[in-house]
Amino acid sequence: xxxxxxxxxxxxxxxxxxxxxxxxxxxxxxxxxxxxxxxxxxxxxxxxxxxxxxxxxxxxxxxxxxxxxxxxxxxxxxxxxxxxxxxxxxxxxxxxxxxxxxxxxxxxxxxxxxxxxxxxxxxxxxxxxxxxxxxxxxxxxxxxxxxxxxxxxxxxxxxxxxxxxxxxxxxxxxxxxxxxxxxxxxxxxxxxxxxxxxxxxxxxxxxxxxxxxxxxxxxxxxxxxxxxxxxxxxxx
Length: 236
Description:
It contains 9 helices and 11 strands. It is of the alpha/beta class. It has one domain: putative 2-phosphosulfolactate phosphatase (Alpha-Beta Complex). The strands form 3 sheets. It has a 5-stranded parallel β-sheet. A 4-stranded mixed β-sheet has the order 3-6-4-5. The chain has a two-stranded antiparallel ribbon with strand order 10-11. Helix 4 crosses helix 5 and helix 5 packs across helix 6 (173-185). The longest helix has 13 residues, at 151-163. It is globular, with a radius of gyration of 16 Å. The chain starts with a strand and ends with a strand. Keywords: Hydrolase, Magnesium. It comes from Fibrella aestuarina BUZ 2. Its EC number is 3.1.3.71. This is Probable 2-phosphosulfolactate phosphatase.
């Protein structure tokens, strides 16, 4: 039986091996939820980059560009970090450059893996269904917040572990902890997360609807996968 492990923040990634491993990156509030939504609504590709300067360079080369720092849109860019911004028919087929505080950095740090997938509660079962067909270990990389652990991404890791517990061994404490947290909170994630730091950060910006949306399970049968430098849609 292959293993499923959890890396609680990208700053701990060097302690994990990504050889013979599929990495699932989760930034629930809100980058990976945006990405899954974008592909569900027909976006062609997303190029995740670590820095604002890289994103601006791609914008100048003709890409639509989305940039977020500290949960706010960076001035001068086309799109923000709300999934509702990607429910726009004008974006169908578009190629988008994206940088966020945590999520895109986590993706760029994972390139050495066998595959890099984008996970969220919105496509939880689609990710699990795909992984059930794969012969590799799995590492869930929680994007966290500026190198620190956050609760929502850890809960996603636990949810994925819960879906895959019959197919993957949970041998490491990170996976066991994430799974137990999810089992404790799954019946009402909004209440369970009520005092979480990023929830408070987003609530100050008045975007409670984004929080509720991002915690919905299994809305889309879409799995974004990194191919080269771009994320593309993989239907499962």
